Amino acid sequence: MAANIGSGSFLWEEFLTLYRLIAPDWAVNKNNLKKVLEGYFSDAEIAKHNASGYNIYYLPNYPSQYEPGTTVDGSHIDTFNWCFVDCDLKDGIYDNKDQFLNF
User: Fold this and answer.
1) Quick check: pTM over 0.70?
2) How large is the average pLDDT for residues 81-102?
3) b/e code 8-46 from CB counts within 10 Å (16+ = b)
4) Among 57, 60, 62, 73, which residue has the fewest nearby CB atoms (within 10 Å)?
């Protein structure tokens, strides 16, 4: 979705984050909600959906080409902005998180 602002144009997607909204069963039944919504939402839309019962998740790594109406799975992800690591200190390999991060 593109929009004209002044003399230029921009893509809404550049300013919005790709979100997955999942309604718990109680909210689906009570508020007649769809179980999952996915797409680009404004802050106001996120607040509205959250107030109606949706749990909000953002996708920090996402597909460069998002097809609305298609549920994103791992095979679609090709834009990586974040790397997640898991440090389980109870295994005793590292004494603390700093030792893990400086390995």
Assistant:
1) no
2) 85
3) eeeeeeeebebbbbbbeeebbeeeebeeebbbbbeeeeb
4) 73
